[in-house]
Amino acid sequence: MLVSLSIRDVVLIDRLDLHFEGGLGVLTGETGAGKSILLDSLGLALGDRADSGLVRHGADQLSVTAVFDVGPDHPARAILKDQGLDAGEDVLTVRRTVSRDGRSRAFVDDQPASVGLLRRLGDTLVEIHGQFETHGLLDATTHQGVLDAYGALETQVAAVRAAWKAWREKAKERAQAEADLEKDRQEEEALRHAVEDLRALGPKAGEEAELADRRSQLMHGEQIAEGLNGALAAVTQTADVEGAFRGAQRSLQRILDKAGTTVQPILDALDRAAIEASEALNLLEKAAGEIDLDPRHLEQVEERLFELRALARKHGVDPDGLPDVQARLEKRLAALEGGGADITRLIREEQAARQTYVEAARALHKTRAAAAKTLDAAVMTELKPLKLDKATFVTRVEELEEGSWSAEGLDRVAFEVATNPGAPPGPIAKIASGGELSRFTLALKVVLASIGPVPTLVFDEVDAGIGGATAAAVGERLGRLAERLQVLVVTHSPQVAARGARHYRVSKHERDGRVATTVERLDAAARREEVARMLAGERITDEARAAADSLLNTTAA
Questions:
Q1: Boundaries of each RecF/RecN/SMC N-terminal domain copy (predicted)?
Q2: Per the domain annotation, does 243 fall within a domain?
């Protein structure tokens, strides 16, 4: 929800701070008072294209700040998190400055940001619908998402996306296997030689480290032997160490029942010492007996190590990676010798994945078509009171050729309208006039009020070219929308203005020889006068005030 809008030095606005609440807010004022400046300013804060011509005469730069109330699950928070930014606990502040030389800067919560980020955030915060600028309806790429949300088709869409991903992965795997097979056919001789070399060498994981350790032992065999033999001599030339420990144990066991707990820990330690001494002697004897001083063995180890490292360099891996290389090349050779049996298997798997996708996508197509009929009927119900009783609204769901299928299914969804009886429906952007387009938008938004993440809607003169009962119907529908969303409306219609929960009047005044635009929130008395002016014009009569009272009382009922 838009909480506040602060404007500095934009066209006729010197300094303006507006505060908003939920529900329906209306902005009125005479033509040329500057209502469009407010929308232009809000658009700037949301990433619209900058225009240095908007900078007020005599100022160096303009500034617009918009503050929004965003809940913990608002999609704007996900965008900020993706950009490494943190939204405040309750509010999000976006700011835009434009200098007279055209330079533009953007900020999110006082942190520098790109205009593109403002635009992405703006798409989740506000929808601005003008007579000639209705993004949601004019952008046909959004129609499918709108229909899916209306029909609550998220689960089906997710299944189609998963099936599409599985199909594309299988297609990629098959294509890669075919490319590898073709490459292997061209390089068959080299592949066979590579496999033969690897099989002849028979590399094992961890072998390089074992060989390097063995090589070190062989290179320093004499030194190692001297050390081991010296240690063995030191142990064997002394008295029987293990026997000494065992003799001490026997002496202590004779006094164990008399010495109490004092002797038992000593007995345990002597037992461990005897065991360790025996084990150390055995290990020394074994190691001394295994010393290899044969120079031929050193030569064999060095040769094996050289061959291992040379083949690893040839294949661009570490020696420990050679077993994996061998397995991969043997698999390729087996596929080559098998005449493409693996390709046949992958083709079957790809076809099965395609069939799964087609079945899921066709089921989604049928569900979309059913949801489209329901949506069309609901929108048509809203059109008649909006002076579009002869118009037709159609949600076109067409199955595309296979080359145009996607993760979203095999459909093209488009909202089409016909404004004259007997005329074929066509793209809404081409068929509907400005005022009609705004009313089509309103009808659709009323039907879709319960879906979509955008909590603030702005309508610019949605009542253009209508009056009386039709304007009253527009106001009634705006009021219904405002029960779920924050709605701001720029209007010249007293019937629409009377519906507002909050009323803002935009005025243009001359001050110090300079024209300036101001905006004030009206109390009940001022609101009565403004609605009377809208009914009667510049000369407000008692009859106009009475009519305004009647209108305000009727809409409040």
A1: 14-510
A2: yes
Q: Is residue 282 part of a domain?
A: yes
- How far from the centroid of its chain's Cα atoms is residue 554's Cα? 47
Q: In 10 A of CB 424, how many CB atoms?
A: 9
Cβ burial of 221 (10 Å; 0-12, 13-18, 19+) is middle
Amino acid 228: pLDDT: 66
Q: Measure the CA dihedral 446/451/452/453, to 10°.
A: 110
Taking alpha carbons only, the member of 342, 406, 403 closest to residue 163 is 406
pLDDT exceeds cutoff 80 at 175: yes
Report how far apart, in Å, the C-alpha atoms of 313 and of each of 155, 160, 196, 200, 458 are: 51, 46, 17, 17, 67
Instruction: Check: pTM over 0.90? Answer yes or no.
Output: no
Residue type, 307: E
Cβ–Cβ < 8 Å for 53, 101? no
Residue 218 gets which letter from DSSP?
A: H
CA distance 456 to 479: 13
Structure-block tokens of residue 306: 């050289």
CA distance 124 to 456: 9
Q: Are residues 317 and 325 in contact, defined by beta-carbon separation less than 8 angstroms? A: yes
Inside any domain, residue 317: yes
Is residue 229 pLDDT above 80, yes or no? Answer: no
Q: How far apart are CA 11 and CA 34, in angstroms?
A: 9
Only one residue has tokens 């066991």, namely: 253
DSSP helix/strand/coil, 83:
coil
What element of type H or E holds 384? none
Q: What is the DSSP letter of 491?
A: -
Name the residue with tokens 């959004």: 142
From residue 6, alpha-carbon distances to 174, 202, 364, 491 in Å are 58, 76, 46, 21
CA 151 to CA 175: how far, in whole Å? 37
Contacts of 192 (CB under 8 A, 6+ apart): 333
Q: Rounded to whole angstroms, how far apart are CA atoms 52 and 11? A: 10
> 239 falls in which pLDDT band (50, 70, 90)?
low
Q: Give the Cα-Cα-Cα angle 460, 463, 465 (nearest 5 degrees).
A: 120
Domain count along the chain: 1
Q: 3-state class of 515 per DSSP?
A: strand
Are 28 and 503 within 8 A, CB to CB? yes
Where helices occur in 88-153 by DSSP H, the ranges are: 115-125, 135-138, 143-150
The span from the CA of 38 to the CA of 506, in Å, is 9
Tell me the pLDDT tens digit for each residue of 342-383: 788 999 999 999 999 999 999 999 999 999 999 999 999 999
The answer to whether the beta carbons of residues 106 and 112 sit under 8 Å apart is: yes
* Summary count for the chain: helices (H), strands (E): 21, 16
Answer yes or no: are the C-beta atoms of 462 and 491 closer than 8 Å.
Answer: yes
Q: Are strands 111-113 and 126-130 parallel, antiparallel or unpaired?
A: unpaired
Residue 101 lies in a domain: no
Residues of the domain holding 249: 176-342
What are 333's two structure tokens?
A: 């050779």
